[in-house]
Amino acid sequence: MKKRKREEELRREIARANDITKQLDLVNELGALCRSNGDLEEARNAYKKAAHIAAGLRNHLDLSFAYRALAEIYAEGGDRKEALDYAQRFRQAAQDSGSHSQIQLSLHVTGWVYEKLNVEQSHNSDDLKEALSWGLKSIDYIKKFGYRIDADKKAVRVGGDSARRKAGLERLCSGLCANLQRRSDAEKYWNAAYSYAKRTNDAELEYQLLLARIDFSWESPVKNAQRLVNFAPVKSKGYAIVELAQVLMYTGDFLSAQNALLDCLLHHRSSLMADDAELLDARVVFLYKYFQRLERTKDADCDRKERRQMYELIADSFCFYGGERKEMLEHALKYYKLMSNESVSDKEQFSAAISIAQTLMDLEAFDEALESFEKAFCFEKKLGRSDIKLCQTRVLIFEAKCRRSCMNKKTLMGDFEELNAKVPEKCTTLKASIYEAVGRFLVTHGEEREASVYLEQAKEFRKRPDAEESDDDDEDEEDASDELDARPDRAILAECMELARLRNSDREIEKDRDKEKNAHGETRMHIAARSSDTAMVEKLIAAGYDVNKRDYGGWTPISEAVSAGMRDNVRALLKAGAKVDPVSTEALNDDENSTGGGITPLMEACDRGFVDIAKDLLKHGASVVKRNTDGWTAVDFLRNLIVNCENEDPKYMEELSSLALFMEDLQRKKSFPVRGCAPQRQSQRTPRVVKSSQSKRSDVEATIDLEGYKRVIGGLGAQSRKGRRSGRSRDESAIFREDDIDSPMKFGAAADDEIVLPSDCEDTDLGSESYSALSDIKDDFLVDDLERKRPSVLGPPIITTLKFENETGGILRPAKLVSFPRTATMASAEERCRSELANQQINTKFDLRLLDGTEVDSDIPLASLGQPLTIVCRLQKLTTEMVYRSQIGCTSSNEDVVRCMTKFDVSGVLDLSLAGLNRPILVQEVLKTIGATKRSIKTLKLDGCGLHTTPVEVHRSLPQRNDLWRSARAFASIPMP
To answer: What is one Gene Ontology biological process annotated in the Swiss-Prot or TrEMBL record (predicted)?
Structure first.
């Protein structure tokens, strides 16, 4: 939109401009803008107008710029006559301008025009030779007049200096020599240009050289293209990938090509120019249709006729898409031959033979083409085609003969006379074709004068109207098509974009297998397990992800699934062999809190009231006798839930009670003491709504159930678990480890059947765990509250975050979540911090404050500071005075030394000239202390300190800093130790 708006503004400014010179500048700008917008017709008109104005002003420099642009535009469009005409005008205008820069560029651009015409129009190696000739002329010109080009600062700013221009020409010549199969010359020019690019760090030229090297047929084009992709900067990455895909298609690796194009479509399309984006879309659509049709040929319900049609469509698409490339034509020929193999009738075989012959002609395999044309002619006669149709095939046969290298002129001219007599005069197109064929034959044999006669006659025939064929017997087949041809490209591209996203996901899944995806050590399996996307869980399982992988907090995927209430995910994980009883523990690593642990998925399912999930876990051997570190079993959590859900739906309460009774019965079978009720009744509060079928956790605060328990160890594991285990905004986690005792769980058993309580669980294999009545169990009826680790309802622990900072406020070590009794004070926090630092052998003094910077007395209760509570422990800044007193002792410290160090701590000035420091031993103490602190010394005063009498080892105690030694020597004239 901005470009279009600027275009309109330029047109208005041109109309208003009275100054012809300004008008010329505006018209040139308009031409450049239209060209960049792809409006080539308007660009041509603008440049022609600019050329007219410049010629009137005798401004040869601007005239040469306009002619250059016109030559390039016509060459890009394949208009040979106009392109070469304007290239010649460019050279003349450049000469008239007297600009050495323009003259050199005119030679360079002429070579580029010939190269472009070879690609867009002629496909003739003579154009490549001509382009190389002009390129070498431009290099010679630089060698002669490069110093004058370099003297023109404006020209250097626009087109580069002589060395850069020479390197660009060497890149052009390298590519031309490669296409002409001049290997040594191609390598010579390429190496020279590449050496310049590396020497000057010219990334753009290096990229262009790597792009040109793809055409080195004696090297692996795929490796060179991959090298280009690896080097390409971000803005060129998309184009490089398109080039790689093209090379892969040439080699027949269509799957890799499609993967590359889909990656480019997904990630880089927006960075492509409009033409390149259009080319990318076309190639994506082409390969989509190719694979769809190829897959169709392999279907059991695809009959012979449809299979033949698919092969024909594939071959036609290769010819249409890349018919100028030999490699693409060879692919087309392959599928035309498959089409021929599926042909049965004369009509089908004729069609296949014609297609094969025409493709062989394009491949310049004229002998084979002639054989196929003659075969097609035989089928055509069997079909009883019209005389005109037969004449058309005869003309094709004659053209193939004319292109054969071994064809004799006398024999050929005899065939020409015979065929010319058979072709009706009204069929002017056929007449023109045979005259052109003879003319080209004579040209290749060096008989240009005689050839011109036939070529002129061919032009005359083309000027005449051709007879319209109206044979009723015309039985030519209609163009083959299928439903893919009827689909809009936009719809196919949309499907390909979705396919690109899917494949990208698959690659990411494969690449990320069991890798940590966030700062909490979670894998894709953890993330998927707590989501509602069971299909992704199954996909990850199929990809080989570890279903028992633990994150930094120790959580396994099944723990995540149970926590989120995702029953389908739980079942999928159990079926894949997930361990049913991964338990939490205290002190999994150094940063974990030492309180709490031992939670199994069954305990959590019972605590949250997920009856169906609990049944699934029991069916797969979940233990009913395992206890957490507080002595609670899964039944205890379930009984606790029942107590707090007394006013719930009766049917739901019955389900909970039935499950509790069944689990208690299983405990009895293991000789495990059964409590028969909740271990401790919670305070009265609003009951939470928990349904057995719900998929999300309830939004309820708990003080003594699992949620309360987890608040003690919250924040130690994956922070992504925040807010998932309940509706409260908090960090929570658990610490898991593998069970030391493996219970024989049936990992392969299906989880599809519902568990019916209690009958179908009576024979469930729960392992070999057994307990006697004398087992070491702290029963709630026997143990006093003071002996329990679990806090009472009236006295929940104070959860506190300890943050550790160094002297400058930076992070000393990771923060830690700890719990304190309700009676704890700041003195308790200070003792805990001292203990934590001692564990890391940090004995430095520290200060305590709250997160907002408030300092609190040591006798202030923590309970009075509110929740959440964060205490910051910052190390005190190390001073020389502190080091000195710690080394000497407060009673033995010298006040003069202390005064010297105090001054140094404040100002950075080390004053050894104080009267009290005239003894070497005191100076030695000062210097050793300063060295221990590794502090910088701004100023060193040595007058009267007796440093010249100080032993050498004293000097060695100083930090080895050149400025300090220079100062010491200047003041005391001491030798360097």
So the answer is: double-strand break repair via homologous recombination
Same domain for 584 and 697? yes
**Residue pLDDT, tens place only, 629-644:** 778 889 988 888 888 7
What is the tally of structural domains in the chain? Answer: 6
Both 947 and 925 in one domain: the answer is yes
Query: Both 358 and 262 in a single domain?
Result: yes
Task: Tell me if 788 is assigned to some domain.
Answer: no
255 and 200, same structural domain?
no
Angle between helices 254-267 and 234-251 (to 10 degrees): 160
pLDDT tens, 40-70?
999 999 999 999 999 999 999 999 999 999 9
How far, CA to CA in Å, does 153 sit from each of 148, 167, 200, 312, 918?
Answer: 10, 19, 19, 60, 70
Burial class (CB in 10 A: 0-12, 13-18, 19+), 372: buried
**Confidence bin at 691 (pLDDT 50/70/90):** very low
CA dist 328 and 315 (Å) reads 9
SS3 for 918-948 is: CCHHHHHHHHHHHHHHCCCCCEEECCCCCHH
Q: Model pTM? A: 0.54
CA–CA separation, 224 and 607 (whole Å): 62
- Using the 3D structure, point to which of 216, 233, 250 is the last residue of a domain: 233
* DSSP secondary structure string for all residues of 171-226: HHHHHHHHHTT-HHHHHHHHHHHHHHHHHHT-HHHHHHHHHHHTT-TTS-HHHHHH
Q: Are 493 and 285 in contact (CB under 8 A)?
A: yes
Range of the domain at 613: 516-760
- Counting residues of the chain whose pLDDT is more than 70, the rounded percentage is 78
CA dist 768 and 781 (Å) reads 27
Torsion of CA 919, 920, 921, 925, to 10 degrees: 110
Looking at the structure, tell me whether residues 462 and 564 fall in a common domain: no
| Interatomic CA distance for residues 170 and 597, integer angstroms | 72
Residues 506 and 531 in one domain: no
Report yes or no on 413 lying in a domain: yes
Residues paired with 506 in a beta bridge: none
Peptide bond into 797 cis (omega under 30): no
Which class for 721: exposed (0-12), middle (13-18), buried (19 or more C-beta within 10 A)? buried
Q: Are 705 and 790 in contact (CB under 8 A)?
A: no
Residue 478 lies in a domain: no
- Which pLDDT does position 842 carry in this prediction? 67
- Report the mean per-residue pLDDT for the chain: 79
Choose one of 815, 849, 875: the last residue of a domain: 875
| Strands ordered across the beta sheet of 846-850 | 811-820, 798-805, 869-875, 846-850
Instruction: Quote the CA–CA distance of 528 and 383 in Å, as a whole number.
Output: 65
Which CATH number does the domain housing residue 95 bear? 1.25.40.10
CA 90/CA 105 separation, integer angstroms: 9
Same domain, 591 and 723: yes
- Identify whether 407 is part of a domain: yes
How would residue 36 be classed by pLDDT, with cut points 50, 70 and 90? confident
